[in-house]
Amino acid sequence: MTHVPVLYNEVLDGLNLRPGGLYIDGTVGAGGHAAGILERTGPDGRLIGFDRDLAALATANERLAVFGDRVRLIHVPYTALAEHVAAGSARGMVLDLGLSSLQMDDPERGFAFRHDGPLDMRFDPSEGLTAAEVVNTWPVDELADALYEYGEERLSRRIARAIVEARPVQTTAQLAEVIARATGKYRERIHPATRTFQALRIVVNDELGQVAEVLPLAVQALASGGRLAVITFHSLEDRIVKRFFRQAAGMVGEDANVSSPTLRIVNKKVIEPTAAEIETNPRSRSAKLRLIERL
Ligand SMILES: C[S@@+](CC[C@H](N)C(=O)[O-])C[C@H]1O[C@@H](n2cnc3c(N)ncnc32)[C@H](O)[C@@H]1O
Fold it and tell me: Are residue 70 and residue 214 in the same domain, yes or no?
């Protein structure tokens, strides 16, 4: 299955694209948003794309080959942005957080409980902690805290105890089964393993730390009039983006007085997918888009 870019037109319109200039895609993935940016900034707009996942970059490389040397793809986390992009140089930047369908649908990557595969979950499979290491080595209390904090899982303690008792847990299907047994199957609308899988993915990739770190760097990279578009897929991430944007725009409370802000929030109300988009691309269901502009 291919990856369908979420809130595609909303991102491209929101970035206020025009021909020429430098754009950044911090999460280039399969290159969907990047292709749109390159089309709308032709004939000479340039794009630098980052991704932690080499397999994603290979897909993006193929997809974006038609744009020739207008594109540069770099295999580093988006938090390495400042090493590759001069301050004040970008007309726009997009961050489409979370994981792509390519990653979700590949059992070998270990993101999905619906396919059986090794418990990996790393965006960059060449480095760092795997989900299996977390699940099999963390003390029960630390595991429970992570499930509660990053998965907002109310049954975190019960699940953590069940995992520790079932060790070693090596595959996604095994983990999903342990959780389902511990919590009582089909009790809820969503699969009982959903929150635990989200929590593990966040821990393994330090997702919240990465988002908090990149936002000021992204703003620094923007030229005057440049815009940053951020799509989040769960409330923990959205909260970080929303708070940062408000602070950066000089709004401490809801509508505090702003003396000389350097940034402006573009959309007062968060942008969400239409019912039609959710129907054709269910993965977009929880997406939220926020935009900020450098003055
Ligand atoms: C939702 S996908 C992006 C899809 C893309 N917008 C498209 O239209 O094809 C998110 C991508 O961000 C990458 N990613 C996640 N965290 C990252 C980080 N800290 N640095 C760089 N890339 C990251 C993932 O590997 C994944 O490929």
Answer: yes
